[in-house]
Write a structure and sequence with these properties.
- By secondary structure, the chain is α+β, with helices and mostly antiparallel strands.
- Helices cover 30% and strands 29% of the residues.
- It has two domains: 4-117, Aminotransferase class 4, branched-chain amino acid transferase, N-terminal domain (D-amino Acid Aminotransferase, Chain A, domain 1); 123-278, D-amino Acid Aminotransferase, Chain A, domain 2, CATH 3.20.10.10.
- It has helices spanning 24-28, 46-59, 67-81, 123-128, 151-162, 206-217, 229-233, 265-278; strands at residues 4-7, 10-13, 31-39, 42-43, 86-93, 110-117, 130-136, 167-171, 177-180, 184-189, 192-195, 221-224, 237-242, 246-253, 256-257.
- Helix 5 links the parallel strand 7 (130-136) and strand 8.
- The model has no long low-confidence stretch (mean pLDDT 97).
- Bound molecules: pyridoxal-5'-phosphate.
- Residues 35, 179, 182-184, 203, 205-208, 241-243 line the site of pyridoxal-5'-phosphate.
Amino acid sequence: MPELAFVSGRILAIEDAVVPIEDRGYQFGDAVYEFIASYGGRLFQADAHLDRLERSMAALDFPSLARDRLRGDIRRLYDRAGLERAGLYIQVSRGVAPRNHAFSADLTPQVVMTVRRLKEIPPALLARGAAVITVADLRWGRCDIKTVQLLANVLAKQRALSSGADDAVFVAGDGTVREGTSSNLFMVQKGRVLTHPLTAHILPGITRAVVIELCRQEHLTCEERFFDRDALYAADEIFLTGTTTEVLPVVSVDGRNIADGKVGPVARRLRQALRRRAGGD
Ligand SMILES: Cc1ncc(COP(=O)(O)O)c(C=O)c1O
């Protein structure tokens, strides 16, 4: 039984796991989540993910969860699955109550988790590099909170796939490039690595933070700076970062080749450094 769910303190097969229909996550999207990847039997950056989960919960006035208990439940679920390379999904909703926009401070947050095998990024995609399209950012004003309200992300991703691209990148009304549908975005311009600063408009990605640190280790200059779509088209390299994305080179945007349209050396180097750091190679 390697792919499992955790609901109301019990571990069970995913297909047998259900949540009550009055869970506020189900009715209002009133829930936050994390997704952690394991490499060689170890959950990568687990504490950073739990820190962010606590920040998301606090930002929405959820009562806090006992960290040791949650960590113990994660361990129990992950160990029971026994998967070396897995994706662990954790969702915490505000709780279960009769449907009402207003909520009581007394609700008990509901934790559900799943653990599944995690597929590697196809080698062919890594070799050719990804194609992305830019889309208007229709999300709400607190994208720094990792909520389950992902409809704009879902539609943007689907639009990218329907147009023959691999993913979409959100761009603000003034042209500022923000992030991918489930990843942060970096570009290389004249030898400097640039990424959007931490604001309410992007998720503070765990992989983003690791990659910024890896840039230092690799003696690459990395700056958190705003840049627009025209700068993106003119970049020397672009790549996306995320827990499942790792470092994914991007070679075209809106049908235009980036530089020579081939995977660049900085993305390749940072991808290798990330895999080494995670223990995946
Ligand atoms: C919108 C968005 N940005 C960035 C990321 C990357 O975050 P992380 O590196 O923590 O996986 C994600 C991951 O799901 C995301 O959904």
